[in-house]
Write a structure and sequence with these properties.
The protein has 328 residues and is an all-alpha fold. Helix content is 64%, strand content 0%. It is built from 14 helices and no strands. The longest helix has 28 residues. The radius of gyration is 24 Å and the shape is globular.
């Protein structure tokens, strides 16, 4: 087609998510007057990247690093702004192309140099929202993996910590808060490898290997849980938080059971407050709701739904017990 990868890259990183041009006063009069659309450029770029593998050919391919786009700009060009409320309404073929180009770019050039932190945060917000709202579980997973990988690859740990904190503090989706807990867990594990001498400090130590990360995030990681009258409305509100609570318990278990992490982050300083304001109240609430479901005091629909809801509360209670046993 006579279009170079660099031309396509420029188009996909400067396109706008505003739909086709509907200006009838500027209709093309010949094929050569038809402009290359951003979506078309994206599909062609993906085809160039995939063709060597799919067709074992050496035709038009993306062969130079200069042709690989700043992926944050690609996402921000084709995925709607979350503030507009349209994230997740994109065509599945478009999403598939955006995700493919992301995985290809990160596989070929596994480092990122975002244009600026604003573009980077906007990209993560779009991918995170897709991971929460898309109806397809496969596409949700792809969006989650891309968001997680991009966040971990950002060269500034201050940016990474700020994004985790912002998600925990302001995100209205509990499953995304659970994802943020997972991001934090990955950062802590990367900053505290088992072979690193315990208590090692120095000018280059990561903030994720110090108590500062817990001090900054503790109000959002282990929220104070208040007792409720255990009505149906209380149960529904509690159930929506289950994924988030399980993620928090998983993180807490790691912080307590891993000796290197526990020592580096001085977890013992925080255990009393976490236990009294979060862990014990959470276990009591889950136990109360489990008992209410077993006694038939809460309406849960058919028997199969009831068994599933009872199992959910039992799982929370069991995980709380495992964490408390480790604390002892």
């Amino acid at each position: 087609m006579g279009i170079s990868p660099d031309e396509l890259t420029k188009k996909v990183t400067t396109s706008t998510h505003s739909g086709p041009d509907e200006d009838d006063n500027h209709l093309p009069s010949s094929p050569s007057d038809v402009p290359l659309s951003g979506t078309g450029a994206l599909y062609i770029l993906c085809a160039m990247a995939a063709s060597p593998v799919l067709f074992q050919n050496s035709g038009s391919t993306i062969s130079s690093e200069t042709a690989l786009p700043d992926y944050t700009l690609v996402v921000n060009s084709f995925i709607s702004d979350p503030a507009m409320g349209a994230v997740g309404t994109e065509n599945e073929s478009l999403l598939d192309a955006v995700f493919f180009l992301g995985f290809y770019t990160l596989h070929t050039k596994p480092q990122i140099t975002p244009a600026n932190n604003g573009e980077f945060n906007n990209c993560l917000q779009r991918l995170s929202m897709l991971s929460a709202k898309l109806p397809s579980p496969t596409l949700r997973y792809h969006a989650h993996r891309l968001a997680s990988t991009l966040l971990h690859l950002h060269p500034s740990e201050d940016v990474r910590l700020a994004y985790v904190k912002d998600t925990l503090e302001h995100c209205p989706y509990e499953n995304l808060k659970g994802s943020a807990v997972g991001w934090l867990k990955d950062e802590i594990l990367a900053a505290c490898p088992d072979e690193k001498p315990e208590g090692e400090n120095g000018p280059n130590v990561s903030i994720f290997a110090t108590p500062a990360v817990i001090e900054v995030l503790a109000p959002y990681l282990w929220p104070e849980i208040q007792g409720t009258p255990h009505t149906a409305a209380d149960y529904n509100a509690f159930q929506t938080l289950q994924i988030y609570y399980l993620a928090l318990l998983n993180l807490l278990y790691l912080l307590i059971s891993n000796t290197v992490i526990a020592n580096n982050l001085h977890i013992s300083r925080f255990i009393h407050d976490i236990t009294t304001t979060f862990l014990v109240p959470l276990m009591e609430e889950a136990s109360h709701f489990e008992a209410a479901l077993l006694a038939g005091d809460l309406d849960y629909g058919n028997e199969e739904d009831g068994d599933a809801r009872i199992a959910e509360m039992r799982l929370l209670t069991m995980n709380c017990g495992q964490v408390m046993e480790k604390i002892k």
